[in-house]
Amino acid sequence: MDIDLTLSADTIRLLAQKARAVASSLQDTFEDGHEGDVEFDADALEQSHGHDGLAEEENDDLSDEELRELIEDLNVDEAAELVAISWIGRGDFEAEDFQQAVDEARERAVGSTATYLLGMPLLADHLEAGLDALDL
Question: Are 79 and 113 contacting, i.e. CB atoms less than 8 angstroms apart?
């Protein structure tokens, strides 16, 4: 199958690697059976909090933000191809139906492509499987 992508397969692999890094940086902090439990140390709470009411969250891991920006910077054709490849990798379309998947991705695009893709469980796996299915 000869497919001419707007995005290079190497770029899609890079996005898949970044998606994998984002997924691995999410911490599973819940222990079995304690998902809703919150414990506070009253003494520690009384002695801390010397700020003026502003809540700040520090996050040194910018991989999620970086991946989001990379996807948001794609043009309409590139974004549609990326979504189509993820759909093929997920099994929603066959490789032979690539152009149909791209057309449908264009038609269904209403919001942020980055939000849609980053909300997709196993995005990296789907992108890699899609590239493999397309022999890219």
Answer: yes
Cα–Cα distance, 63 to 70 (Å, whole number): 10
Residue pair 67/112 in contact (Cβ under 8 Å)? The answer is no
Backbone angles phi, psi at 33, to 5 degrees: 85, 0
DSSP 73: T
Question: What is the residue whose two structure tokens read 């304690």?
Answer: 34
The span from the CA of 14 to the CA of 131, in Å, is 12
Q: Please state whether 53 falls in left (phi above 0), alpha (psi between -120 and 50) or beta.
A: left
Please, which residues have CB within 8 angstroms of residue 72's CB and are 6 or more apart in sequence?
112, 113, 114
Phi and psi angles of residue 35, each rounded to the nearest 5 degrees, phi first: -60, -35
Contacts of 125 (CB under 8 A, 6+ apart): 89
pLDDT tens, residue by residue, 77-134: 999 999 999 999 999 999 999 999 999 999 998 889 999 999 988 999 999 999 999 9
> pLDDT (tens digit, 9 = 90+) per residue, 16-28?
999 998 887 654 4
